[in-house]
Sequence to fold (255 residues):
Amino acid sequence: MIRPVRILLWLAFGAFFLFPLYAMADFATRDPFGGGRTMAAWANLVTDEALLTAIVTSLLLSVLTVAAMLALLVPTMIWVRLRAPWANRLVEFLCLLPLTIPALVVVVGLRNVYLWVTYLLGESALTLTFVYIVLVLPFAYRALDSALSAIDLRTLSEAARSLGAGWTSTIVRVIVPNIGTGILSAAFISIAVVLGEYTVASLSGFQTLPVQIVELGRSDGPTSVAASLATLIFGFGLLLGLSLLTGRKRRRGHS
Fold:
């Protein structure tokens, strides 16, 4: 009795999540003039210069945000756990604080700071990396915190140090391989957040992928929906890949 109910629940959840995606795909491939099917909207993803530039910008922002976030957060969390446990709650509070602050307030609060950023680095959309690091901190912190809690961090670090390894070697060659799943989780979730962020980029006047999708929706609905669907599929693919990788590592650990 339980198995049929489980199957029905999976079918219901599948229909609930997949039907909107099907509707988006149907709209993005419909020819409003000829009445048939066309892939013109999907072709515009690589032929529309403004849209292609926005896609490249968002992908570069994702890479830069993930790299900077990991370089900042991983050593800090390791150092706090090993050398300053009393600061653990403070770091957690600071990392989770962006969840309670609306994006509009973040933009207004950073306006004066960004005057200096623009003066030093120019008016490039890639400067949004500094804001996006703040926005992804809560999600990245939780993923890394879970990974670090699952290992005996102090024993690993003391063993490496007793064998003559420096702190850099200890972090890179001993600790990081043991929290690889947490690092991948933080990276993939951060990429999904950056690719879907609209408010900060729009209020700052930069043409990222979400901003370009909204603007396309006013003049070219099918292309806008095609770009949105491609972004969703890419995000789902990342999360599915992470789930499969995590499950494989768990099975190896049990075996």
In short: The CA atoms of residues 196 and 228 lie 9 Å apart. The longest helix spans residues 49-83. The domain at 49-253 is CATH 1.10.3720.10 (MetI-like fold). The chain has a mean pLDDT of 84.
